[in-house]
Every structure is written in C-alpha cells, then in structure tokens.
Predict the structure.
Amino acid sequence: MSDLVPSISRKSKNFMGVNDYCDSDNSQAVIMGLPFDCGTDPIRIGARHGPESIRKQSQILDPYIFGYSDINPIEELNLTDFGDLDLTAGKLDDAFTKIEQAIDHVLSKRLIPITFGGDGMVSLPQMRAMAKHHDDLVVLHFDAHSDAYPIRDEQYNTATTFTCAAHEKLVDTRNSYHIGCRGPASQPALAEFAGQLGYRVISMDQLFDEGPTQVIKKIKNKLGNRPVYLCWDMDFFDASCVPGVCEPTWGGPSAREGLSMLKSLAGLNIVGVDINTVCPPHDHTNMSAHLAANVALLALHLIAQE
C-alpha cells in the first residue's frame, strides 16, 4: 500500500466477514471506517465508535434482499474492507488529511468507497478527494439537517460541512440535494441560506406532501448519469428508529419508508457512499447500528445493479 495512505487500526471483524483490502485486489467497492468525531457536543459524543458497531451488527446479515434483489453484492463487487483509519477525535486537520488521502487512494484504484462515520464532518474531506476524480460531482444528502449553516465562530464543524463544500466548489450545488430536513434549528432561515449556496432543499414535509416516489423520480431524471456522492446521515430516519445517533430528530420516515427511498435510487451513478452519525454510547440495543448496516447492504445492491 502507498506510503501516502494513512495507517489503519482494525478494531472489529470486517463488514459481513469480507476479506481485508489489498492493493492487488480486483475489487470494485471497499468498506472504510472513519472513526472520528469533533468531540465538541456537550452530551452526545461517541460517533467515533460508529464503524466498529456497524461492522459488528453486519455479522448477522445475509447478502440477498427478499423481494428486491437476488444479486450477491459481496461476490458481484468482490467487496473488501480497508479497516478503520487511525484517527484521533478532535484532531481535525490530521483527520481531514488522512481521510482525503485514503479516499483519493481507493478512487485512484477505480473503487467505490462505502464509508462508516464518524460524525458529519467526515464528509468534507471525502468530497475533496472525490472532486479530484469527478469534475461534475453532485451530492444527495439524506439528513434531518442540511449541514449547510452560516459560518460563524469556527469554519469547520458538523453544521458547516456542506457550506465549506460549496465555498470550495467541490460539488455542483445547483444539482445537489439536501433531503429530509426538519425539526428544531439553532438558527432561522436555514433553508434559505442553503438555497443561496445553490443547494436544492427538500424538507421532510415537502417530501411526504409530494410523495417520496415522485420526488426521487424527478431527482433521477434531472441527474441522469452524473456521478453521485450519496451521503446518508442516520438521523434521516425518525428518532424512534435510530435513538443511537448524534442528533435524533422526530418526524422522519420509518425504517420501512427510509429503506424504500434508498431502494428507489437504483439506476443512479453512485461513486461513493457515506453512512454516518451512529453514536454507540446512546445505541443501547444496537438497533441504530443494525439499521446502518442494512443501509450499507442496500447501497451495495444499488452499486451492483449499475
């Protein structure tokens, strides 16, 4: 492996028991853990343990999806597991550098990364790497929060991830979407601010008023074959489904509804998947991590169907 690729620290079994990543593998997709959180929230700290928890819960999954797909994506994609990057919570610059280098490495091997966060800040260095490989990159961000807030005291925090991405011109904001935004907000007019950055914001109320099927159909028609970075924050689901996330938010879709929306993305040109904000210290029954593992498996099916 290149010296430019950060060291890894394996802390658990590989996702669904797949093999370790190796430069010489003929893989098409790779799992990568990004065990990092900013550590600034006064209460809900612990997303750094998310990758390990998701992997553990993946051990009880089977590869096929009843009534949806008879593909075995692990075999179809020759899926491997890169392990967890060796990151230190709170050391933002170091984490950004290591994440960007690692994603750049696997993209240079023409692999599709499926990453487990970590909090929402891990998305920015991933987009930095992807922008080097995809000139017309767009993002589909499923989240209760836009993470495109005005920058105030500090430039980098979990609320400014997509603000920074817009300022750095990493994605085509006018064809990128924040889907499912809702709930209490720390600032007014956040949808308007994200719109000023160019993003298209679809609130949870809008999503269900128009109907998820119609909304997703319009998005797919608009994006066509453009490269899509799929960012799935687990608090997109209702808090009753995922109590063990960084910021559980009421009024979201059920597990069935959310997974159905994910299935409906079939046909998009997905070049990277980011599943984040599982917070194991608050996930006492491990169901949030288990649902995240199912999201990852479905994302693999989407990629294998392309």
